[in-house]
Design goal:
The protein has 7 helices and 13 strands. The chain is an alpha/beta fold. It has 3 domains: 40 residues, no CATH class; 169 residues, P-loop containing nucleotide triphosphate hydrolases (Rossmann fold, 3-Layer(aba) Sandwich); 58 residues, Ribonucleotide Reductase Protein R1, domain 1 (Orthogonal Bundle). The strands form 4 sheets. The chain has a 6-stranded mixed sheet with strand order 10-9-8-11-13-12, sandwiched between helices. Strand 9, helix 2 and strand 10 form a beta-alpha-beta unit. The radius of gyration is 21 Å and the shape is globular. The two termini are 35 Å apart. It binds guanosine-5'-triphosphate and zinc ion. Belongs to the TRAFAC class YlqF/YawG GTPase family. RsgA subfamily.
Length: 290
């Protein structure tokens, strides 16, 4: 589906067998009368994707912000959060963590788990999308204004609630959480683009870029095979801040003597959980590629 600058939506075919197009792409296309055909892709500003051993899965292109939703319940995986942050850093996309459901009793623990992220400079906002929708709207408005934002989050964190709050006409379904499994059902099955109204700002040229939200389906695995192990530390802000003091230039920061990163970690500048995730990722990304 291609949208013209005038806002008309045209159903287009692609040339060739397999389409590599993703939501957020800009394309050149020709009309075929009742529809259109996509001729070419305009070069992407950025592309957020995950990659495992077998395949690459793109989320969306040309993003201004990645908003990662987490919540006290279901308990979010710090490994998944970190993977999303690393993928965004690798694609040069600004990030923000949204802690939702702050009305729940587990909020202080979740807030504590996010402290290392705040400390390393990752913006964290607090939301209670269901309980305090107007406050959530006020918190989100300046963040989303004039930008294209991809909302990412494991199932059950409140993605659909957020879309429904900001895009009243969206028929995004709000999934009822599966209490028994302590996991949400996957109710969002395709990536969708929504224009946001009422969040307009004027840029330096006097134009008012419209705000847009992209809703993507939940995911189980977040492969980072696009990242080489030696790139990893540079893409994790707490690790990156400690770089430049290792005895060996190709230090893995795992076991080498004279490692400035491990010294920083020993001083408490890198959380134990982040150290564990780094070690796991380093190992995973060092495995032989087929
Ligand atoms: N207590 C509380 N519950 C919330 C809040 N926001 C959302 N929920 C609930 O959390 C559950 C999951 O919310 P959804 O918006 O469906 O989550 P989702 O991330 O879209 O999940 P999927 O549709 O499974 O991908 C629903 O039962 C919501 O009512 C909140 O601020 N506080
Ligand atoms: Zn080191």
């Amino acid at each position: 589906m291609v949208e013209t600058p005038a806002g008309q939506r045209v159903l287009c075919l692609t040339r060739g067998k397999k389409s590599e197009l993703v939501v957020g792409d800009r394309v050149r296309w020709s009309t075929t009368g009742d529809g259109g055909v996509i001729d070419s892709l305009v070069e992407r500003r950025n592309l957020l994707f995950r990659q495992d051993e077998w395949r690459t899965k793109s989320f969306a292109a040309n993003l201004d912000l990645l908003l990662i939703l987490v919540a006290p319940e279901p308990v979010f995986s710090e490994s998944q959060l970190t993977r999303a942050l690393i993928a965004a850093a690798a694609a040069d996309i600004p990030v923000c963590i949204g802690l939702n459901k702050t009305d729940l009793p587990g909020a202080p623990v979740a807030r504590e788990r996010l402290a290392p992220y705040r400390a390393m400079g990752t913006p964290v906002i607090e939301l209670a999308l269901k309980r305090e929708p107007e406050a959530a709207r006020a918190t989100l408005a300046p963040l989303l204004a004039g930008r294209t934002t991809l909302v990412l989050g494991p199932s059950g964190m409140g993605k659909s609630t957020l879309i429904n709050l900001l895009v009243p006409q969206a028929e995004a379904q709000v999934g009822e959480i599966s209490q028994a499994l302590n996991t949400g059902r996957h109710t969002t099955t395709s990536t969708r683009w929504y224009w946001l109204d009422g969040a307009e700002t004027v840029d330096e040229t006097g134009a008012a870029p419209r705000a847009a939200l992209i809703d993507s389906p939940g995911f189980q695995e977040f492969g980072l095979r696009q990242v080489a192990p030696e790139q990893l530390a540079g893409l994790m802000p707490d690790y990156a801040a400690a770089l430049g003091h290792c005895r060996f230039h190709n230090c893995s920061h795992l076991h080498e003597p004279g490692c400035g990163v491990r010294e920083a970690a020993a001083r408490g500048e890198i959380s134990p959980t982040r150290q564990r995730i780094y070690a796991e990722l380093f190992e995973e990304l060092s495995q032989k590629r087929w």
